[in-house]
Amino acid sequence: VQVAESGGGLVQAGGSLRVSCVVSGNTNGIHSVGWYRQAPGKPRQFIARITNFGNKQYGESMKERFSISRDDASNTVNLQMNNLKPEDTAVYYCNAESRIKTSWGRGTQVTVST
Fold it and tell me: Percent of the chain scored above 70 by pLDDT?
């Protein structure tokens, strides 16, 4: 399984950005895809997860400004981020989970300027 994030970049505070995660390879058995982020010097933080059935789960306080969705035709899971704040600056990671393995991408940098 390969996981690849894209869509990061520099955005001003108050702006919006959408990051995308493409899952490819042997995707049989993948039951959910999630987004996490890690800021310098901080632990990795859970943002959201979406299952094959479309069920969504959000981390604490994430649902207010973040929205996860999936496009099965392209094996893509998107994370829409609105009203971004400087404290949202981090590397954003995607992972794909099956019963036996969790596959991570390399991350995409999101920087929010004041």
Answer: 100
Q: How many residues does the chain have?
A: 114
Q: What is the pLDDT of residues 4-42, one digit of tens each?
A: 999 999 999 999 999 999 999 998 999 999 999 999 999
Q: How far is CA 69 from CA 13, 39, 40, 45, in A?
A: 23, 23, 27, 19
Distance CA(114)–CA(75), nearest Å, equals 34
Hey, how many other C-beta atoms are within 10 angstroms of the C-beta on 47?
23
- Give the residue among 87, 89, 69, 90 at the shortest CA–CA distance from 78: 69
Q: What is the pLDDT of residues 49-58, one digit of tens each?
A: 999 999 999 9
CA atoms within 13 A on the CB side of 14: 1
CB atoms within 10 A of CB 14: 11
Give 41-71 as a DSSP string.
TS--EEEEEEETT--EEE-TTTTTTEEEEEE
